[in-house]
Design goal:
By secondary structure, the chain is of the alpha/beta class. The protein has 3 domains: 170 residues, FAD/NAD(P)-binding domain; 129 residues, FAD/NAD(P)-binding domain; 90 residues, Enolase-like, domain 1, CATH 3.30.390. Helix 1 packs parallel to helix 7. The longest helix is centred in the C-terminal third of the chain and has 15 residues.
Length: 455
Amino acid sequence: MPDDLKSGRIVIVGASLAGLRAAEALREQGFTGSLTVVGDEPHPPYDRPPLSKQVLLGQATADTTGLPMRRDPDAEWRLGVRATGVDPLAKRVLLEDGESLPYDRLLITTGTRARPWPNPDEAALDGVFTLRTREDAGGLAERLAAGPERVLVIGGGFTGSEIASACRELGLEVTVAERGPAPLVGALGGTLSKLAAVMHRNHGVDLRTGVTVTALHGNGSFTGAQLSDGSRVDADVCVVALGAVRNVEWLAEAGLAAGPRGIACDAGCRAFTMYGIVTDDVFAAGDVSRFPHPLFGYQMLSLEHWGNAVEQAEVAAHNMVSPGPLRRPHLAIPTFWSTQFGLNIKSVGVPTYSDHVVIAQGSLEARRLAMVYGYKGRVTAAVTVDMAKSLDYYRHLIETAAPFPPPPGAADRAIAADVPVPSEVPDPSVLYHGPTVALTGYLPDRRLTVVPPAR
């Protein structure tokens, strides 16, 4: 690595939100060396949240979701080419076209992809979609605009729920199949998921919970699905919303702590090797990373959040061009939002890191509330429904490790909050959808191999 951290060669693999914001931040931090951004999609970086909302509703087209550049990062963009590996000794990124890119520092922002339907033949039926890319959204929006008789959504997480909401707004019949007891239960726990189930059904969704889809039917084109309870759903469009897969397979031989839960890194975004040794030249940010957070028991957090991708990318960029004493940690509180069935849902903290919840403002009946989550007597998260202005207050409680249940403060009631009840966060393995913030603990993703001593 050059003595001057502001020069040299930096390669960013992953040309989406985190990759773009990191490239911009590197220049803002004074980096003057060569900067290359590699992306497997042919498009410049674009925004993904509108794909399940405005694009499906016909309010925007998929090709208008490009992310604005805050400044020209003066980078070489290698788009439409996939990275296939990293040689950490030669310090080169290998590309599928046979070329390799030398680097002094590498930032991995490869994010996630949609989890596919497990049966490839059924997944290939015309009318079966996942939703992750511009092409996915454009194709699905076109099919929805054609007015299908019924849409089947497999998975009741945030993406599946947003798709179902868009279908109902378009006047389409929709069935949601969820393996768990309710929509959003993996992300928000049992109490709020009951409200989610009511909202689905009140808006005309045919919600099936506690069931799995055992087969997709069709002869070339999708015609319906078989469920585990013996019933059949006839539909002409199917959206598979089974969560995300982290894009780490290309790192299998790189010697990094990369596995199904992402790339483990320290709070400064430096990647760990598979032996738990921190690197000084490989960094990770965004959905593909997992990192320790002191407010949540130093659990390794794995986030699929827009805001986290931006904030972590900026921390990574700063640390890539700063000497050790000037590096800073990524300690932002996870924040997430979703709009569905006319409700605005916002979350701060880690709802899955909880044992009890309490409704601190509003009520389930009013469908306007602030729910606070606690773990072992302190506040760890809050979720608001159509009450987003209260979120900053609860963020402060999380940051200051305030006691749970919280005292009256921002509350719109004169009396103390309701009696805490168990948060009922289920094991993600029993769901079709997972949390938007996953606690990944310290479990290794793969067996370690014995490294022979140097000769």
